Amino acid sequence: MQHEGGGGPGGGDGGSTDSISHSLLMVQRLEALLLQGNGSDVTLRVETPNMEEVKVFQVHSLVLVLQSPVFQDLLSRNGSSLLLTETLDCTALFDRFIRYLYCGEVSLRLDQATALHQLATKYQVLGLQQGLSQYMSKNLARDSAGHVADWYEYAVQVGDVALRDSCLRFLAWNLSAVLQGGQWTRVSSRLVLTLLRRSDLVLQSETELFTALEVWILHNQPDGLTAENALRSVRYAMMPPRDLFRLQTQSPVLARYQESVRDLLYLSFQFHSAPPPQMAKFFDVNCSLFVPRNYLSAAWGAPWHLANPARDDRSTSFQTQLGPSGHDAARRVTWNALFSPRWLPLSMRPMFSETGAMQPPRSEGGRPRLIVTPATSSADLAGVTFHKTVLVMAQQGGRLVVTQVYTFHQSSEEDGDFLSDADLNRRTSQYLVDGALHLHIVVKPLYQTLISSKN
Hints:
455 residues; alpha+beta; Potassium Channel Kv1.1, Chain A; Serine Threonine Protein Phosphatase 5, Tetratricopeptide repeat; Apoptosis, Tumor Necrosis Factor Receptor Associated Protein 2, Chain A; five-stranded antiparallel beta sheet; 16 helices; 17 strands; flat
């Protein structure tokens, strides 16, 4: 029995009532009603367009009408017999869809999610539709990344914005794994162009991205406009000159489309050869061509694995190149990073009263905080601003994947929700792998555009 509160005559404690719940038994009886067809008043025939599969259900109009406004409309126009035409995948799973209408639950495999989502969307069963979107968003890391690209295309097709954004974020933050997987060559041109426009891509280097794009173009042979738009989205200025020279002489794709990107290559070589302050007088060095993505190579940052991260403060140091220009490639900046698992904002720290007595803090505990500051003299950094990006890995689907990305200038406090849901004290936290927190700090240098002086 479950205590609910309230009152009733003869109550021994003078003011409480109890409830008796047989909801599980009710679900079992509804399932039996579906399986046996007792008292059914609707015949539901589901078939594929070419009749390769047909299923017939004896169902109850009350259940259909309660769960789906589409069924309510169909029954009002067609009476007690409904003929539905569905794809082969949807027809094969229609019995599970109907069972959900009766029992409120469904069992499925990863490869069945899209077809069930299609049925839930078509018949406006909103609870199932939302539940499947959440299931898909939570299972992006399972198996290969191929299903994520498929789910992205499907989400765009049906207008599921939340699922679309979840898929796109996962692909962008784990792009190196996607590029190395066997599914990359069958990714659609729409998704390729969408990814290439993003600055938050996580990958080894821009050269890795170009190499994968070249493989995709050679395999898919897209129309000229698509290929040109894709190639013009590559940030050639983020490649070292040696890679640019190699691509110009060895890339079959650049040999075919070099006229389309000649201006970008020319700007990139200028970017690497001229002093950045001089370049900044004549060009907008904050346009996408000159903006780094989240590169994992050592020149741009460092991984940081913190064992038992909830225990105490930790610090580390690493070096990056001063800027992406070849003119600055040999110059290094040393960075100091401090991680605190229980940093207290000012509003949460103990306060002292006028008599000197300590007042209790406004709330307990604290929250994780990361500070990244240069050990190099500020005079050596003139003309460059630095964005710090912290990639947070978590265990999902048996794999370590990037699940959170935070960007700030100096402290994660600027982001507000840094690791707010990590619960580092809980050993079973998805953010802890063998008791360690896996971070990767990326430093993205941006040159400051100066006032034009084209006299």
